[in-house]
Amino acid sequence: MFRSFYFIYRRMKTDLQGSSDGCLVCRSGPSGPLQVQLGDSVLLPCSIRTPVPLEELEVEWRRSDSETLVLLFQDGEERGEEPKFRNRAHFFTEEISRGNFSLFLTDVTPADAGTYRCSVHTEKESGDTTALISVVRLVVSGGARAVSAGLGEDVILSCSVDSSEQIEEVVWKTDQDIIVLQYKDGEVLPDSSHERYRGRAEFFPAEIHKGNFSLRLKEVRTEDKGDFMCEVHTSLLSASTTVLLEDLGLSLLHVLILLLCIIAALLALSLSSFMCLKMRG
């Protein structure tokens, strides 16, 4: 991930060299909110056109809503005063001498959402720019990784979704990438199912608005054994969970029938033996 942000810096440097607005503090990158998933990292851009001696430079990153100091560069050193940002907020030290004071924030939490201001002060002038972080969330979880079912029985494969964004698509697939059932743009699409699962796979419609996209698979067959993946997509994020369907043995009904057949056979054999003995006597 660190290397990917290095390439972002290279693009930012090129953008600034080609700019002609004469600003002290220049901002490159998206003009809208920076969409970040929980636990990920984010780069907040802040640069000056012409580098200045480090001893003449002071750079502050603060939360605009609370004036909390996130990170400070002063007297040639980086300092962080706020405990909740300690070890999470960083400059790229090798870039400071080139006029790049972008903030790299790691392990983003819900509390990190908000507006951040980069203020740059030199002996001759000052300037600032802002960046907005919007924290998004998509967590997809299942139950136990392995579930069991008897042949001919129904089984439920769990998939629960917790998302801050609107869910655009949920698709259940097998490990052969065969579609079992699909939900898209607010509708269940039973015709999307492969013929092997058509009429046997269903969601729980009353539970969908709660983020429950568990799958009921009816009349389990031997060929159903294997991994099933629940893939969830929003406009920004994708995530998935996998459930293993195993132990496709005889169902309880089949076992009971088999036992009854064995008992009936034993009774018939006993009765036959009894009749034979009686006839001999």
Tags for this entry?
six-stranded mixed β-sheet; disordered N terminus; Immunoglobulin-like; 281 residues; 2 domains; alpha+beta
Mind explaining what this structure looks like?
It is built from 3 helices and 22 strands. The chain has helices at residues 2-17, 93-96, 252-280; strands at 25-26, 34-37, 42-44, 47-48, 58-63, 69-74, 77-79, 89-90, 103-105, 114-121, 126-136, 138-141, 146-148, 155-157, 160-163, 169-174, 179-184, 187-189, 201-202, 215-217, 226-233, 238-246.
Radius of gyration: 32 Å
Overall CATH architecture of the largest domain: Sandwich
CATH class of the largest domain, named: Mainly Beta
Mean of the pLDDT scores? 83
Biggest pleated-sheet summary: 6 strands, mixed
Give the helix tally. 3
Return residue spans where pLDDT drops below 50 for at least 5 consecutive residues: 1-22
CATH topology of the largest domain, by name, is Immunoglobulin-like
Number of domains: 2
What is the structural class?
A: alpha+beta
- Kindly state the number of beta strands: 22
What would CATH call the homologous superfamily of the largest domain?
Answer: Immunoglobulins
How large a portion of the residues is in β-strands, by DSSP E? 35-45%
Distance between the termini: 92 Å
Give the helix level as a range of percent. 10-25%
What is the general shape?
A: rod-shaped
